[in-house]
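re: ur question from earlier - yeah i can do the single chain one, its not a big deal. heres the input i used so u can compare w yours
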Amino acid sequence: QFQNDSMADLTAALASGGAGKSDISNIFFDPHDSGTIIAAGPSGVWLMNTALMSAQNATPIGVQEFSSGRAAMQIGKTSSGETIGGSVAAGSSMIAWAKSKKTETSSTIIIYDKSSQTITTSSTLTGKNNELKWIKDNLLGILQDNGELYLYDTGNQNIKKIADDVKYFAATENGSSIAALENRSMEIIPTTGVSDDYYRFNLPDIANAQRVAWYKDAMHLFIEYGDRISFLDLKDAGLNNFTTVAIGTAPFYDTDKNALYLIAPTQNLVRFDFPG
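and the output i got, formated as tokens:
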């Protein structure tokens, strides 16, 4: 949080790390550290310390100077002919992003360790990156633009492909399973290697299914279509009870409140509370 609830000039802070306005296309608070803002664009990734943001800090800095009173630092940088694409994912101890050469259809994953301020690089993956998500500590989900979904164990540097033809994926809160929404079916893939936790569903109208979200018990899923939200029970293999629970768009499920929010056809914000 900013000190004394004051406003801060993000442009000046970014300038202190050598970034201009045109260099940034994505900016957000680190979900695991409210005192840090992460900014990224095709040419780099920057960290900003909200407690240190002020105009007098607007001088170029290096990575090692960030902890000694400077407002920002650049932690990722591209070389000539390279670009940073896809998303930036912030975990409890690491930050991940993808880098690729503009002339090639492949990419590598960059891992920044927050504590040691060191960088590691994965082996090359086919395709450009679409999305990165931390599944749990040291385990990263990687979705490429060719539909290939990978798990990257940053501890042992192991990358394995777990699905093809994927358009969206979501992990349970504890990271034990991943729902991979594909163009022809949906797979529930365990990250622990327990085969009994694997499921596959041929969902109706799957071409229009856009996203999925886990219900808090990790045994049910919300399936988001273009105009409605359906509810799936993993034990309902025959889809006998697969039903529409709400009509609307832009759904958001709050696990803590056990409530589903969405925009109704009337353009009103609607909240559905679930029992239990």
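The CA atoms of residues 259 and 273 lie 4 Å apart. not sure if urs matches, ping me
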